[in-house]
Amino acid sequence: MTTFTGPEICKLEAHEVVALLRKGELSSEDLIAASEARLAQVEPAVNAVPVVCADRAREAATTLQGDADHPGWLAGLPIGIKDLTPVAGVRTTFGTKALADNIPKESDPIVTRLEARGGVVMGKTNTPEFGAGANTFNDVFGATLNPWNTRMNAGGSSGGAAVSLATGSLWLSHGSDHGGSLRTPAAYCGIVGLRPSMGLCASASVTGFIGEGVQGPMARSVTDCALFLDAMAGFEPRAPLSFPAPDTPYQEAVKRADTKLRIGFAPDLGGYAPVDADMARYLARAMTAIEGAGATVDEACPDLTDLERTYHVIRGGMWAANFIKAPKSLTQHFKPTLAENLSFGLSLTAEDIANAQLSRSLIYDNMRAFLERYDVLACPVVGNMPHVQTEEWVSEVGGQTLTGYMDWLRFTFLATVAGMPAISVPVGLSDDGMPVGLQLIGPPRGEAKLLAAARAVEMAMGGPLGPIDPVTPKS
Fold first, then answer.
1. Sign of CA pseudo-dihedral 280, 410, 427, 418
2. Cα(97)–Cα(69) distance, integer angstroms
C-alpha cells in the first residue's frame, strides 16, 4: 500500500482522494490531519477558513466508519461550508457583527445532504457580510486575501472557499452565487466554480420561492466539480423550487468531454459590459487555443436588452424579502452597500417588478434559442483582473467610470437572470502570474453538457492549475 505524506495528500485532487478512501489506502483521519496542518501553514497569510471544526469532523468521520451502508459520493472527504450556511454546533456568523457568536442548533439541508453522502465538514469559509459584494471581508473575521498575490482581492462572496482550494487546505468547498459570488472568486483564484440551475442544489430559506441565489460546488478541477455536484444535487421538500438529480451522474458527462465544441464567444456581451485591454487579450488568447484544440468559435451574442435593470430589480426584490422583517438589532450593523441594497429593494414598484419579469422571459427565450445553435456561450467572468484588496469595488473598467458597487460584475448577471447554469474555468495565467477565468453558460438545466464543455476547455488549456503556496510580495 502506498504511503502518503500530509503535503502529498493535500496536492491530490478530490476524486483521487475519494478513490483512495474507497480502497482503504487513506482514512478520513489522514485527511483531517493533513488539512489541519495545511491550514496552520497558510491561514496566517490568507484568512480563508476562520472557523475550523476538526473535532466535529473527527466525530463525523468515526460515525461514517461505523456505518455499514455505502459512504456516499464523498466517502469521508473533509469539505468547507461557506459562512452563510448553518452547520449544527459550528459558529456561523454570516459575516455580520450581530451574529458573531451565533451557533446554530440545526444544519441547512444542503449540509445534511452532503454529510449523508460522505462529506465531513472541516470548517466555515469566509464571506462578506450576508454575501454582499465581490470582495471578501467583514467586521467579524477581517479580509480574505488572494493566494497568488496576497495584496490582491480574492473575489467574493465565496472568497474563503476559493482560497481554501487554491492553497490546498481543502479538496472541495461549498459556495453560493447570485451576482457571481462563486464564479468571480473561482476566476480570481484559479479554481473551478459552478453556478447550477435554480433548485438543483436545494437549501433552506425564508424566501424559498425566490431562487436566484443558488448553492453550488467549487473545486480545483472540472472533474472534482462534477463529483461535488453529484454530492450536492437532489430533491429537498423544504425548498419549493427543488428538483431531483438526473439518473446519470455528472461525472459521466465529464468523462465524455470532447474538444469539438460549438462556442458562441461574446467578449463584451454585445457591448453590454466593459473589459480591460489585458483581460480581452488573455481571453482572446484562450479562445485561439481552444479553437486550435478542435472547437468552432464564432463571435456572437444574443439580444440581452434591459439585462442591467432586470438583474437589479430581481436582486433588489431578494434583499427586500430577506430583511423586511429583520429586527433592527441585525440591520443596524449593515455596511453601507448592504443598507443601500435593502433600501433599493424596498423602493421597487409593481411596475418595476412586472417589467423585469417580462424582460427576463425575453432574455431567457433569446438565450435558449442561442444555445440551440451553440454548446455554450463563452464570455468573461469579470472584465478586469484582480485589484488590490483594499479597493472595496472596482470603479473603472475598460476606460469607463462605474458608479455602482455591482457594476464591474455585469458579466455574471446573465446566467442569474436567465436561470441557466454557468461555470468559471481557469484558462491560464496573466503576464504577472495571476489566474485568468473564462465563463461558460449552458442551456436550461444543462449542467452535464456544461461540465463536459468546461472539461474540454480545461484539457485544451492544460489545466487544472493545482494548489499553490501563498505569494506575499516583498513591497
1. negative
2. 41
To the query of whether residue 82 is one of the catalytic residues in this protein, the response is yes
Among candidate residues 73, 418, 61, 107, the one with its CA nearest the CA of residue 219: 73
- Three cell numbers written together for 11: 496536492
pTM of the predicted model over 0.90: yes
Q: Let me know if 181 is a catalytic residue.
A: yes
Q: pLDDT digits over 231-273, tens only?
A: 999 999 999 999 999 999 999 999 999 999 999 999 999 999 9
Secondary structure (3-state) at 194: strand
Is 157 in the active site?
yes
Which residues have a Cβ under 8 Å from the Cβ of 175 and sit 6 or more positions away?
A: 82, 158, 161, 162, 181, 182, 185, 186, 193, 215, 216, 217, 218
Q: What angle do the packed helices 447-460 and 277-292 form, to 10 degrees?
A: 90
Place of cell 465531513: 120
Q: Which of 35, 82, 169, 359 is catalytic?
A: 82
Which member of 107, 176, 181, 197 is catalytic?
181
Q: Are strands 77-82 and 119-125 parallel, antiparallel or unpaired?
A: parallel
CA dihedral sign of residues 271, 274, 277, 282: negative
DSSP reduced 3-state for 160 = helix
